[in-house]
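INFO  loader      accepted 1 record
INFO  loader      residues=927
INFO  predictor   begin
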Amino acid sequence: MSQDGDAGGKNPDKRSILPFMRHELRTPINAIIGYSEMLLEETAERGDAAKHLRADLENIHSAGHEMLAIVNDSKLEIDLENFGHSFRHAIRTMINTVVGYTEMLLEDAQDSSGETFMSDLMRIQSASKQLFSLIEDFVKFGNMEAEKTGFEQPETDSLSPALREMVSAMPALPDEPGVPEQMQGAILVVDDNEMNRDLLSRHLKKQGYLATLVENGRKALDIIKTRHFDLVLLDMMMPEINGYEVLQILKSDTKYRDIPVIMLSALDEIESVVRCLEAGAEDYLPRPFEPALLRARIGSCLKRKQSEEALKESKRRLNDIINFLPDATFVIDREGKVVEWNRAIEEMTGIKADDIIGKGDYEYAIPFYGERRPVMIDLVNMPREELDANYTDIRQVGDALSGVGFVTGLRDRELWFEGIATVLNDSQGNKVGAIETIRDMTSYKRTQQELQKAKESAESANRAKSVFLATMSHEIRTPMNAILGFAQLMMRDPQLTPTQREHLNTISRSGEHLLALINDVLEMSKIEAGRITLNPVAFDLQALLEDVEAMFRVRTDAKQLQFVIQRATSMARRVVADQGKLRQILINIIGNAVKFTETGGISLRVAALPADKSRLHIAIEVEDTGPGIAAEELGGLFKQFVQTSSGISSGGGTGLGLAISREFARLMGGDITVSSVVGKGSIFRVEFYVEPVGVLTDDEEGSLRHVIALKPQEEPNRILVVDDKAENRKVLVSLLSSVGFVAREACDGLEAVNVFKEWGPDLILMDMHMPVMDGFEAIRQIRLADPDKKTAIIAITASAFDEMRHNVMASGVEDFIIKPFRIDEVLEKMRQFLNVEYIYEEDAEQSAGQGQFGGQKQLSLEGLPVELVRQMHRATLSGDMDQLDLLIKQVDSHDVEVASTLRKFANDFRYEALATLLQQAPGFAEE
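INFO  predictor   done
INFO  writer      dumping tokens
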């Protein structure tokens, strides 16, 4: 028996059976109501086919609720002696109603309903019989000859075992098959009544829970040790060990106390509810329960558990993060008590976390200052004015405080430290504490002091060296001027013999070489002394490149080397930069390439892309096919007076040229880098920044016709603009919209793929270098979704180098445009792939026939093979000048005048005009 049985040797009060009586009667009534509700739901789903069954089921359901109302009547508690007269008649009437309608339904539904339907009817019939048996037992008990206040045990021998033992033991019902794939949670159902277990199981599995059923508390405790459960539904009254005792055992064990428990019972006395909640139950559910209430209570309980587990996990992770921070860190709560003290601060102070966690009253300041006092973590909420007035060494950075301090008594050593403290708030903005990190700055401070001394010493030595070099330069230049001057005068003497002339030439060349060495040394001394400065001027960048090319073309031709120039077709001509230093950089690097290259050639590649609103980023690559530089020599390549083995063997030079060039490049905001393979050659890359003062792509600026609008069409083409720079997207979207296209934008490749799938654009202008997902991956995914290439893709790239062009074209695009782009160039590319027609400005349209190409009339390309024209167009766009030269030679056999004109355009670097001319050839745009 439960704890309500015999106590202290006294007979139990006869009236104490009343709560149990109500519990026992509610069990079969609950089954009648529950199964009838399920059958009503089933017949409703079957519609008119089961209409004849619903009326009888509704009568059964109504009778169940009437019986429940009778059982819940408070008069039952005070009318035990008259139990047989009032209660038995009312309940029996309802039982007869249930039994009668159940028998009729069993006959009517035998042929038309499934096995589950018939099984539930039989369960109602069984519950009715059980209820009838209980009524007879209770009547017999109420009529027993005994005192009102008690009874003797022998008198109960005539009662049923169920009543005699208070509860009946039922075997566990096995789990039903068909558990949903997505489980909401694993729930253990503990109930001694089979029908109760079955009803709960069906309700739970209908909601997607995995239900495990056991019939007593002992088995529940055993299975909890072997399996994980998210929730326990625990019946209150059971044999051997009741639900309350099971609850106490679970909550007293640290392994299982976190499993939420909902108590189930037909006993609804407030004392029972309070008792269970105080013992640790999360909730209490009286029988018979409403399915909606059951779902809500279980869902609320599981959500609360998940939230608590997430909070614990979050706190654990935070503790781990704080504990493994390299800087000394501690946290206090709103009362100023230490709640975190990590390993680094243990090592710094010698105070273990276990000895200080939970302590307040500024005790955390004692290891540092030897006394209790407010420190920076206590000042985070102080008003700014008060902080500035009282603490000059603490500064406020946003919501945090920062300051540098010095202590002498921390573990018998001096310590410089930097502290950073800030307040900690909860999700509602309420202060929950504060955190401070303390970084040991002692080594840094000592190093800083040593560096300052070394800097002062170096500056003093540097000044002395600069003075020495400047003096020596002046002293050497004076006699050198005389030597070179007289040598030039003597060279004018017509009476010189060939031998004398040769000797004078030797003197002159040696003097010039010595002067160049002196200039290099002086230039480097200026750099080291910090006296070198930029002298920015406006100049023609392309003219400078042409000058350098002309300078070295003679030398490369003399050595029978190829000298190839490749540059961005839309690069600004007039820029502001230090022209002299840029020229010296190019001369040094190209001069080295020509000097060390004996076979093959040199390539000069120039690219320009916008760095910001006011500057361009210029990248120049000089590639040669010389002997290359060994890996072990690359590290010293830019050091002063250091030469590679090739440089030493070639003779001459100071080893300062590259060092000076790198310093110049860095002064201009860039740098010089090198990659090399021994036996194959080297690539020197120069990067620097300039300010454009006028954008001229070539002399034929504006030769492309200016587009006013699209010609009328049924439906405007949809264009997707993809670029991670908002200003770039805005330019294109505004342009396309003004012309008549429908444009949308995406800020990265991932968004572009999503917009493509949703919107289906006709053409995509795709940037290649973007965060999240770059253009290459976006193009790959779009082509997988669009294998027929119904959507054209034009890549927009800031790189003008051949390898990048090849990679872009291989990614699956139709064409590419180099940044910074020309608007009319973009529209012209789109025209080719969308087959649209534009409306142009009248003046530009008229200039297409006369004066478009330097005053010459439009050349006729009718006699040229279309495929040859297309190959020349591709070579022009890709910048493959060697291929273009070979193709123009083929034109000679068709029309020498046309070939000569095409060659002039190529030699004058008028690539855009040449491309436009080739596009106008008959049949060019046809498939």
